[in-house]
Amino acid sequence: MYCRGIRGATTVERNEREDILTATTELLQLLIQHNDLRAEDIASAIFTVTEDLDAEFPALAARQLGWTEVALLCTREIPVPNSLVKCIRILLHVNTTRSAAEMQHVYIRGAVNLRPTLSKQL
User: Fold this and answer.
1) Is position 38 annotated as part of the catalytic site?
2) Which member of 4, 7, 56, 87 is catalytic?
3) Is position 120 within any domain?
4) What pLDDT digit, counting tens, does each position of 44-82 carry?
């Protein structure tokens, strides 16, 4: 058994609670689907948001999906000039027997160009 990292990112149009939760839920569901994950496989998750998003904690979406025993953390991205705005990023730490190469990273909406060589663009 190994602990592997799985990355994902998405964007929202507005800094509104429902937009943040909807986009985060969509991204989490895609990460779950493409990596065949169960809540008990996930050791922890780090959620980051750009400085223009503060209407809600994106980790709430994971709690609403039933991730009650998963360690979750929200933090803010470094405000690099000219970087992608209104962006939510997720790093999952997953216990698995799969190799790192088998992990499916998911980048959607305005985040598809962040890591095109690593991502499964949808």
Assistant:
1) no
2) 7
3) no
4) 999 999 999 999 999 999 999 999 999 999 999 999 999
